[in-house]
Structure formats: C-alpha cells, structure tokens
C-alpha cells in the first residue's frame, strides 16, 4: 500500500486519482489517495501529484499553507512527483511571472499560456521516451518549456518544444495525462521511474 497525495486546490483531482490507482493495480500495489489542501499531509505521502488548473492560484495556496517547503523536502528525499500543465509551471525553476512563486523542483523555465496564445486546446499523439506506443496527449492552454537545465531530460517534444521533462524523481508534462483512460504517464512517474526511491520508501503490502 502506498499513499499518493494530490494537491487539491483545483484541477482534475478525481481523474488523477483514478490514473494513479490504475497504474498501481498493474504493479499489484494498492494506493490510498489523500487530498492536499493544508500542511502536514505531504510528509506522509510516498508520491505526489500537482494537477493543472491556474498556476497563480495553486502557488498562492502552497505558499500560504507552507505546503511548498514540504514538497521540496519530498523531492530532496528522492520521492516521485508528477506535475501536469499548471503543475509544471508551479514546479519549474522560473515561470517568468511574478504572480507564480515556483517550487524549483525541476530545472526548466516555462512560458505560461504559450500554446494557448496560438490555439486554446488540442490533442496530439506523442512519442514519449519510455513508452512503446504514442500517448494521446491533451493540451489545454498549455505552457511551453523554453529552457531545460543540464540534469533535466526531455522525454517528449511537440512542434519542437519540450512537453514532457524529467529531473530526477520529478516528471512534468505540459499536457493533461488524466484526461484519457491511458495511465502510462502516471505509471512512468510513480512506478517505473528508476530515479525515484519509491521502492525504498514503501514497504510491501
Ligand atoms: N494556463 C494555465 C496557467 O497558467 C495552465 C492551464 C492548465 O493547467 N490547463 O496556470
């Protein structure tokens, strides 16, 4: 049994919970989902998920409640995080926007709403490192990763922009993997991420 924390300010909390559960099932791991709205919850979580929504609102809550430093400690301990869309913006080193106080848990800089300025939302089959078949990626007012640090790996690109990136135990996507029944991204982030210490962090159930 593992405990998965989903930051629940806004965004597709139940869809992400379903994705994590399905990914766990395929490894015979049962998952308890906990919603994160205040401090004190993250330290008990084995894995964390930062969903999409509005990055300004999410970062404000994390800062106000003191959840931000708990997430940073989680990453320092080598435990996995999946951050999607606005979650990617919040996780980044810099979002070039004063209204977003980023966590700096993945070494990228992002441009908020960069795809959105051209086209609001779209779906694309993406080739992602670590997955055998293309992933049906849904982009909604998605950010663009415009600079990637030395230790960060680009897992997928769309239109030449990085749209899935990994820095140690943190994986972030510009798209919304929870909007399809395909849970391979949740699997990649939490159960198949060799850079994370989930196996050491959890005991068999
Ligand atoms: N554009 C939003 C932001 O800047 C993110 C959109 C999303 O999460 N779908 O926070």
TrEMBL record:
CC terms in the record's Gene Ontology section: cytosol; glutaminase complex
Native species: Haloquadratum walsbyi J07HQW2
EC number(s) reported in the record: 4.3.3.6, 3.5.1.2
Name listed for the protein in its UniProt record: Pyridoxal 5'-phosphate synthase subunit PdxT
GO process annotations (BP): L-glutamine catabolic process; pyridoxal phosphate biosynthetic process; pyridoxine metabolic process
Lineage top rank: taxon: Archaea
Pathway the protein acts in: Cofactor biosynthesis; pyridoxal 5'-phosphate biosynthesis
Catalytic activity: aldehydo-D-ribose 5-phosphate + D-glyceraldehyde 3-phosphate + L-glutamine = pyridoxal 5'-phosphate + L-glutamate + phosphate + 3 H2O + H(+); L-glutamine + H2O = L-glutamate + NH4(+)
Subunit structure: In the presence of PdxS, forms a dodecamer of heterodimers. Only shows activity in the heterodimer.
Recorded family membership: Belongs to the glutaminase PdxT/SNO family.
Record's keyword annotation contains Lyase: yes
Residues forming the catalytic site: 85 (nucleophile), 176 (charge relay system), 178 (charge relay system)
Gene name of the record: pdxT
Record keywords: Glutamine amidotransferase, Hydrolase, Lyase, Pyridoxal phosphate
InterPro entries attached to this UniProt entry: Class_I_gatase-like (IPR029062), PdxT/SNO (IPR002161), PdxT/SNO_CS (IPR021196)
């Amino acid at each position: 049994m593992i405990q998965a924390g989903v930051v629940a300010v806004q965004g597709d909390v139940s869809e992400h919970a379903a994705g994590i559960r399905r990914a766990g099932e395929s490894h015979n791991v049962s998952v308890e989902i906990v919603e994160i709205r205040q401090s004190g919850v993250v330290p008990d979580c084995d894995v964390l998920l930062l969903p999409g929504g509005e990055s300004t609102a999410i970062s404000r809550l994390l800062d106000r409640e003191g959840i931000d430093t708990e997430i940073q400690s989680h990453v320092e301990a080598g435990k996995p995080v999946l951050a999607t869309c606005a979650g990617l913006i919040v996780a980044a080193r810099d979002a070039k926007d004063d209204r977003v106080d980023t966590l700096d848990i993945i070494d990228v800089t992002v441009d908020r709403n960069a795809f959105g300025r051209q086209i609001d939302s779209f779906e694309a089959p993406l080739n992602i490192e670590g997955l055998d078949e293309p992933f049906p990626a849904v982009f909604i007012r998605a950010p663009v990763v415009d600079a990637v640090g030395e230790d960060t790996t680009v897992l997928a690109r769309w239109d030449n922009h990085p749209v899935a990136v990994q820095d140690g135990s943190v994986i972030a996507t510009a798209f919304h993997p929870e909007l399809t029944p395909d849970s391979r991204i949740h699997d990649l982030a939490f159960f198949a991420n060799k850079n994370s210490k989930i196996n050491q962090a959890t005991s068999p159930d």
